[in-house]
Design goal:
This protein has helices at 13-18, 21-29, 46-53, 70-87, 97-109, 134-152, 162-170, 220-233, 254-262, 276-281, 296-303, 334-346, 349-366, 368-378, and strands at 5-9, 33-38, 57-60, 91-95, 114-119, 156-159, 180-182, 207-211, 238-242, 267-270, 284-287, 307-311, 326-329. By secondary structure, the chain is of the alpha/beta class. α5 (97-109) crosses α6, α8 packs across α12 (334-346) and α11 crosses α13 (349-366).
Length: 382
């Protein structure tokens, strides 16, 4: 009997165990020999051991995560082509920008029968920036062209929200006849992220929480600016931050982070491998991001029964039913963000009420079992 192989291509080993763990295990249950490929997936990475111990095959590939280097990118395609040729998987699923672009091109030429792209978020390439340099404009143009080429080589494209799908059609990156659909994010394991009781409010200190990489387009600067406004009026309020600095061009500086910590504006938890203790300690989760696929940290906070404040932006707006499980605010609006925070301070009963609604939405719309089953149906995996 032929071995059914499934290859998953990622840009970071962490994302395989954080975002795709349930999917990987479900594929194994369905009789697939599961292979994973990512840069830095070598013996020094703890994710490799975790995957191998679970009977998952790992492949370390060459890929520069940021920037463009034609020589390096060709090396990535060649690397992936050889891997796919050797494994002959029935399915190749790639997610995030570089794996999608180079993975789909390599899979097509290596004649993989089922080539699936998962668009998890669009990043700065699809944000309209003011005063863009010629270089940035050029990178955006090239990236969009590469996306178009790669997606023309795929059989199925998953988007994590309808806004991104519409944008790709509008920009003609995707043609109307291409097979594409919307999936509710990566899903959340509602058992791992079980609902926990809200912390008691001590001395009127409501605790807000932000979890993300410390990038400008995650809205971290707006979160801190709103925190300063709130602290002028309600000094006892606590603003927690979980996350880390990144090589991404929109990352904040170490200096900026230090000044926020030293001024007492934020309580910095650093980078956590398990975010549950931070969510448990919080009353309200805040993500003022400019654009997302479907933010996993928001789903995790919802599953644990926390009210949400997020932006009326693609990928974010889908997680909040306005006034039911939280509030939506305009992108980059510090004033509106602070007003939404103040509602929870002046009417603390909303914390419990909206937190319960969040849990319900997580269970019915974002549970990982539901999300994965939808993906299997679309991929014709029985």
């Amino acid at each position: 009997m032929n071995t059914k192989r499934f290859l998953l291509i990622a840009s970071h080993p962490n994302s395989l165990t954080n975002f795709r763990w349930d999917l990987i295990n479900k594929l194994k249950e369905k009789g697939f020999e599961v292979h994973t490929a990512s840069p830095d997936l070598d013996d020094s990475d703890p994710n490799k051991k975790r995957l191998n111990d679970a009977g998952i095959f790992t492949h370390n590939i060459y890929m520069q995560r940021t920037g463009m280097n034609p020589k390096g990118d060709l090396k990535t395609i060649k690397n992936l082509f050889q891997l796919i040729k050797e494994l002959q998987p029935e399915y190749v699923l790639a997610y995030t920008i570089k794996p999608v672009i180079y993975g789909m091109i390599a899979a097509f030429y290596a004649k993989a029968p089922n080539r699936i792209a998962l668009i998890t978020g669009l990043g700065y390439v699809f944000q309209s920036g003011e005063n863009e340099t010629k270089k940035v404009q050029f990178i955006k143009k090239i990236t969009r062209s590469l996306y178009k080429l790669a997606l023309s080589k795929s059989n199925l494209v998953f988007f994590q929200n309808s806004d991104d799908l519409e944008l790709f059609k509008q920009l003609s990156i995707l043609t109307p006849e291409q097979n594409s659909t919307v999936v509710n994010g990566s899903g959340v394991n509602t058992q791992t992220f079980a609902q926990v009781a809200l912390p008691q409010v001590k001395n009127d200190a409501i605790q807000f929480l932000f979890i993300a990489r410390l990038l400008k387009d995650k809205g971290v600067e707006e979160y801190v600016a709103a925190a300063k406004l709130i602290k002028e009026k309600y000094p006892e309020t606590i603003f927690n931050v979980v996350g880390y600095l990144d090589s991404n061009p929109s990352s904040i500086s170490q200096q900026q982070l230090n000044s926020w910590i030293e001024s007492g504006t934020i309580n910095y938890w650093g980078r956590l491998s398990d975010v549950r203790p931070a969510i448990e300690a919080a009353h309200v989760f805040v993500l003022p991001s400019y654009r997302e696929g479907t933010p996993r940290t928001t789903l995790e906070s919802m599953a644990m029964g926390r009210a949400i404040i997020t932006t009326d932006a693609p990928g974010c707006r889908q997680t909040v039913e306005e006034g039911k499980n939280g509030f939506l605010v305009p992108v980059k609006s510090v004033q509106n963000l602070a007003s939404a925070m103040e509602k929870f301070i002046t009417t603390p009963s909303l914390i419990e009420q909206m937190g319960q609604a969040s849990r319900k939405i997580a269970e019915t719309k974002y549970d990982v079992e539901i999300v994965n089953q939808f993906m299997f149906d679309q991929m014709n995996i029985k």
